[in-house]
Amino acid sequence: MRAPSSELPVVLDRVSFKTGETTIIDRLSLTMAPGAPTVIVGPNGSGKTTLLRICMGLIAPTDGGISWGGRQHAAMAHRAIVFQRPVMLRRSVAANVAYALARAGVARRARVAHVDELLARVGLLDLAPRAARRLSGGELQRLALARALARDPELLLLDEPTASLDPASTRRVEEIILMAAKSGIKIVMASHDLGQVRRIAGDVVFLARGALCEQRSADDFLNHPTTSEAAAFLRGDLVI
Ligand SMILES: Nc1ncnc2c1ncn2[C@@H]1O[C@H](COP(=O)(O)OP(=O)(O)OP(=O)(O)O)[C@@H](O)[C@H]1O
Ligand SMILES: [Mg+2]
Asked: Rounded to two decimals, what is the model's pTM?
């Protein structure tokens, strides 16, 4: 396990994000503490991606505040984000990870061993020389995870990392996520796959129309939703 975190807890205090007349995130207050993965659940357009971008510090709230480990302007050094459709450099799988290590400040001599270790961690060692842009969707997500792990993050934000993957690829990505969580990395992940919530989440943040409806343990959320929005979502009814 790692030393006490400098990124955690992530605390949002009445955070809003507006563009023009549109409110995308609406006075949202929540705390993401060290421990089991937090999964952000909600229908399409409910604000999951926007919330992750705020948590990464890529966009600033238009109202309210966010802090990481008690600081409002924490450097991003120990945070990483994997987007839904990761873009790779037009280079080999290994070179993409080496680049991420270089960006993270790892010395050139240490990089080669580190690349192999990260690729082994995500099951891509055999594909090290392959052109990254030739990978399948599942392999690409695993490479994106290796690249994010190269930053040695305390906080790893994942935007629907298995959205277009088949069950076997989904399982492999989930195993990597669970291993990362076990090593002490705080995972905050968007998903609308309830099976995945069951397999991965410690707690669930449920959003509807940019507002927080529930933050509860995954078991409580899945078995005893308290809001009508969450109950409708769990039944498969649209709540947009
Ligand atoms: N920069 C922007 N300008 C205007 N509207 C935006 C912007 N970013 C997001 N939106 C809108 O905000 C709403 C929430 O978007 P967001 O991508 O955060 O939702 P989401 O929960 O991730 O959806 P999905 O499940 O489809 O990925 C959507 O209606 C989207 O069109
Ligand atoms: Mg999204």
From this structure: 0.95
